[in-house]
Design brief:
CATH architecture of the largest domain: 3-Layer(aba) Sandwich
Number of helices: 9
Largest sheet: 7 strands, parallel
CATH topology of the largest domain: Alpha/beta knot
Radius of gyration: 19 Å
Number of domains: 2
Helix content: 25-40%
CATH superfamily of the largest domain: SPOUT methyltransferase, trefoil knot domain
Structural class: alpha/beta
Shape: elongated
Strand content: 15-25%
């Protein structure tokens, strides 16, 4: 089954990361002579086939999603990583190791935004679930602004067991919870760790909460008591980077 890449950023990042896997890029006839010219030239330089299409054909290929006049088709499905290999890589990095684990995050826009933040802040990889969670879809790729093309993403059947395995390998597991016992700033994030983000509706499930070494909260002073999952993840990843940068400068 071919993987669909929707929009300028998704196609650009795929060209930069692994152009050889792109079978063809469809470009709107008018855009090829204007705003999309850079993509067309880059693709041609990398030996990727370009085909000009009218807007109605692009809309049909995108099945209602936004595409900005450019759609790439990869000859391969998204290549998920092995969780064991991701864990090995994370442990080998020592204090720089960082995994973002998602507990039943089903919304593709949230998933994509979290992937974008994880890649931007240098996480080793992302772990999501095989069931009751969004897979990597064209919407996820677009929401990530193409960051999926640079991300290491593993899927597991049982997240609780995956967290047990991470703890056995010496990783500190930090669950995000509005009722957490510690604030994010007071939590030590300089050690190799797994940041666990809950679902949009109910947050972390009980068994997942029990596998966390600490439940950390993001203090808020306004009338809204919770944050979107992707926003909470981005704030946490920034805090990880802040703490580790300070520790490295001492």
């Amino acid at each position: 089954m071919r993987r669909v890449l929707l929009g300028v950023r998704a196609v650009k990042e795929a060209l930069a990361a692994h152009a050889q896997s792109i079978a063809v890029i469809y470009v709107h006839e008018e855009g090829a002579r204007g705003a999309l010219r850079d993509i067309v030239n880059d693709a041609k330089n990398r030996g990727v086939t370009i085909e000009l299409k009218p807007m109605d054909e692009l809309n049909a290929l995108a099945e209602g999603d936004r595409h900005q006049g450019v759609i790439g088709l990869s000859g391969e499905d998204f290549a998920y990583a092995s969780f064991d290999e991701l864990l090995d890589r994370t442990v080998a990095l020592g204090p720089a190791g960082l995994i973002v684990a998602l507990d039943e995050v089903t919304d593709p826009h949230n998933f994509g935004a979290i992937v974008r933040s994880a890649v931007a802040f240098g996480a080793t990889g992302i772990v999501t679930m095989k069931d009751r969670a969004s897979p990597v879809t064209p919407t996820v790729v677009r929401a990530s602004a193409g960051a999926t093309e640079h991300a290491t993403i593993a899927r597991v059947t049982n997240l609780s067991r995956a967290l047990d395995a991470a703890r056995e390998r010496g990783l500190w597991t930090v669950g995000l919870d509005a009722e957490g016992s510690a604030t994010l700033a007071a939590t030590d994030l300089t050690v190799p760790c797994v940041v666990v983000v809950g679902s949009e509706g109910r947050g972390l499930r009980r068994l997942v909460r029990e596998r966390c070494d600490v439940l950390a909260k993001i203090p808020m002073s306004g009338p809204i008591a919770s944050l979107n999952a992707s926003v909470a993840a981005a704030i946490t990843l920034y805090e990880v980077t802040r703490q580790r940068s300070l520790a490295a400068s001492r």
